[in-house]
Design brief:
51% helix, globular, homodimer, 8-stranded mixed beta sheet, alpha/beta
């Protein structure tokens, strides 16, 4: 049972039902649930794809969970706590829960699985994350992802249930690293977008993404993740998708800044959240608290939250003192 | 003194002379040297850029080297041995030599600095490598690179001499890793191009590049490089440029294969070398000799040298057994 009818929840429902899994899709809004059920289309979040007839759709969670063996949370991070607090009374006991959310809870800095652990009762909780643009997966294009949970048997079971001929699932025991990879990449993606908007070229963008993943690993390791996870699919892999996709919200936000729009004006014009703009604040705080160097993330913070002109960030990054790369690599 | 009037040698001459260095540019062909000198243009290898008037140009190496404090080799790998064997009698003693070549000598599998060490006499030899598309650097767009040599004092001197406001130079003592990064990335770039040609999407390409750099690090470490170098600018950074640039020869070769052309027909139609097609052979040999897993490079080998249809490689990569990512990361 997948909770959440956004792009990724819907694509996951289509993917799994196409290989014969019995899938329930929970939709918060009763009217939209009825619309989804009737039309088998989700124009709001995944336009252009038919929801396989076998997918059971309802706004009543309790109608979907009979015999359920995996719960999937496809809920935006900002609605995670409220949604699962409301669903908690209807959850079958001990059934594992897999989170698809990327981000950090703004008020607490908690990772999605930490939030879930506080509200869904005693059960195994894992995360599935990677370079997974929903509409490509709905189209059946090949993709790979990572499932992380502490329980190795559950990881194997999820790997086996979610793998298809086009969706390759890797296991990784590092829940913290996999979850942080999905959150921290959005800050670097804003910088990559600024690079596009300023038309700095392929060399500059490649260097920025490379130095960016090194920053992610440096901070992520200090926050409890394993260094190598950040160079895997849920770290570097996801970063690459976000920095190169024309449809990435975070990259596009950065591109508009690079072309001269003011960050606050862009944010006011958007209906959806730009996660990286939010995450830049906690990253700046962590940097100061830990006394580590995160030059790219810091420039994003300065531009988005302190009004620094984007072109000045290029000078700031290029004119730092000479470095030994080896000391700097992680 | 820069030996070689190709795109990168010429761009390097422009870059350095613009910040006031006294630069000599050696051109093998007497007629073309005269043309370069007269027109200050290099339409054959770097069309559209003026060679700064201060750059001294000659086909007579001995006329350029008076007072020279760094020699730069900007010669294609396949001409490296013959070129420097011919230049050897004219080289000022003990002056350090910096190699810009990316590749491996086909008959010996030697790295460029190993070839140079055999022919240029007793002198410090280093390498400069990174995400450095020549025409972007000639335009003055920002870029970063890595200089590697065993002599730390020389590394600092080169770092200081070659750094400009738009060209950021990192030091790294790992000569082997920096050089292998520049050679091995071309095989993965062919796979990335096939991904483009087959229109497999952003998710697949991101996963491929991520798993690709992990392969590069796995093989590169076995060949004597340091693991972390392969995730730095001369490894991952250069890989990213090559996999995303529309003008990369290796990526374009892969893209044409993905669109259905036969590799041998494409190679026959090109005047320039596709380094990755050559490097795929030695990589396949190393894989078998070392008994390691290099699934992406192996599929490139199968397509380029064994006539395997590119679409079958996707199935081969997606349908391997289930993996623990952590065991597989380096």
């Amino acid at each position: 049972v997948i909770a959440g009818d956004g792009g990724w929840g819907t694509a996951m429902a289509i993917l799994l039902s196409q290989v014969g899994r019995d899938v329930g899709l929970w939709c918060h809004d009763p009217e939209y649930a009825e619309f989804l059920q009737r039309t088998r289309l989700n124009p709001r979040f995944l336009p252009g794809f038919e929801i396989t007839p076998a997918v059971r759709i309802s706004h009543r969670f309790e109608d979907l969970v009979d015999g359920c063996d995996v719960l999937v949370s496809a809920v935006p991070t900002e609605h995670l706590r409220s949604t699962w607090t409301a669903l908690a009374p209807h959850l079958p006991p001990r059934v594992p829960l897999l989170s698809l959310s990327k981000g950090m809870e703004e008020t607490t800095d908690l990772r999605p699985t930490q939030v879930l652990a506080q509200v869904v009762g005693e059960r195994p909780i894992g995360v599935l994350s990677g370079p997974n643009i929903a509409r490509e997966i709905a189209r059946g294009l090949p993709a790979a992802t990572v499932v992380a949970c502490e329980d190795a048997a559950l990881a194997r079971a999820v790997q086996s249930s979610f793998s298809t001929e086009t969706f390759r699932v890797y296991r990784n025991a590092d829940v913290v690293g996999v979850e942080l990879g999905g959150a921290l990449k959005n800050v670097i993606a804003i910088a990559a977008g600024m690079c596009d908007g300023l038309e700095l070229g392929t060399n500059a963008k490649a260097a920025l993404i490379d130095r960016g993943v090194i920053e992610i690993a440096r901070l992520g390791e200090r926050l409890g993740g394993q260094r190598k996870t950040f160079f895997g699919l849920a770290g570097l892999g996801d970063l690459l998708t976000t920095c190169t996709s024309p449809v990435s919200r975070n990259r596009t936000f950065g591109e508009r800044i690079g072309r001269g729009e003011r960050p606050e004006d862009i944010l006011a014009s958007l209906s959806q959240v730009v996660e990286g703009a939010k995450t830049a604040g906690p990253v700046h705080d962590h940097m100061q608290r830990l006394g580590i160097s995160l030059p790219i993330s810091e420039q994003v913070y300065q531009v988005v939250h302190r009004g620094k002109p984007p072109r000045e960030t290029v000078r700031a990054l290029m004119l730092r003192g000479p470095k030994d790369e080896a000391e700097d690599l992680v």
